Amino acid sequence: MAEYIEGKRPVLEALKVGVPVQCLYVAEGTHGDKAMSDLVKRAHKMGLSVKQVKRAELDKRSERGSHQGVMLEARPYEYVSAQSLIDAALAHAEENNGNALIIVLDHITDAGNLGAIARSAEVVGASGLVIPNKRSARVTAATYKSSAGAVSHIPVAQVANISQFIDRLKKSGFWVAGATEKAPQCIWDAPMAGKLALVMGNEGNGLARLTQEQCDFLVSLPQAGQVGSLNVAQAATACMYEWMRQARVQDQG
Questions:
Q1: pLDDT in tens, 154-209
Q2: Which of 35, 56, 76, 120 lies 20 to 30 Å from 234 when distance is taken between CA atoms?
Q3: Max intra-chain CA distance, the chain
């Protein structure tokens, strides 16, 4: 099912961050609108198809009734296979002193969190993200926006079963660390360098019990304040940087 991005500002932002799109729809009778003309010019420069349609057609496609006479039709995101992601991570490890990172998301449901995690993962040099193909956020236009376009530069795989994927990671030589505030071991004291899969849990319930049991070890972030825990995207970023720090120390040693 096609995803439509509606409204002048959302359309402009989608074009800026590189959302894969296939067509720009513009309502008839908008020739005198400068913002609309600028969008059409940008779309033409990007090689996009631009179609003029009746405003009633946009009304039918609109979910919020706020299209302002313009819509983008986004192409479906192209997920990679789980095995190709593992293979890429193993190749990365060979070139980086045995260090590689895969982020596994155990039913993250907010597209904004998915995008923020993808952005951090790309920044630290992770090989990719893995998400379930059901009951989970998927890559949408909102993900591109919250990742500042980073999701265009890091592969994402969908899997039917997180536990089975974790088994595949172990057989491929990865250690699997689960992040949970209930873990007795501080991440600073955990072995985070090397070939690592970092598993982050759902926004409300954290890591599922079965997922925790599949992990080689569990880690928590140190805390000095009174708030219970960080947002999952913030926590994932902190954990990723600890992997990056330890990998750098290992390289220097």
A1: 999 999 999 999 999 999 999 999 999 889 899 999 999 999 999 999 888 889 89
A2: 76
A3: 67
Which helix (H) or strand (E) segment holds residue 157: the answer is strand 156-159
The token duo for 48 is 């996009």
DSSP assignment of 125-138, as one string?
T--EEEEESSSS--
Which run of H or E residues covers position 141?
helix 141-146
Looking at residue 86, its pLDDT comes to 97
Q: Which residues contact 210 (CB under 8 A, 6 or more apart)?
A: 163
> Exposed/middle/buried for 121, CB within 10 Å: 0-12, 13-18, 19+?
buried
Residue with tokens 């260090």: 99
For residues 157 and 246, what is the distance between their CA atoms, to the nearest angstrom? 26
pTM for the whole structure = 0.86
pLDDT for 15 equals: 87
Q: In what order do the strands lie in the sheet with 49-53?
A: 3-6, 70-74, 21-27, 49-53
Please state the three-class secondary structure of 81-118 as a single string: CHHHHHHHHHHHHHHCCCCEEEEEECCCCCHHHHHHHH
The pLDDT value given to residue 188: 95
DSSP 1: -
Closest CA to 115 of 101, 129, 94: 129
Domains and CATH numbers, the chain: 3-74 (3.30.1330.30), 82-252 (3.40.1280.10)
Task: Show the low-confidence residues of the chain (pLDDT under 70).
Answer: 1-2, 32, 228, 253
State how far the Cα of 101 lies from the Cα of 244, in Å rounded to an integer.
9
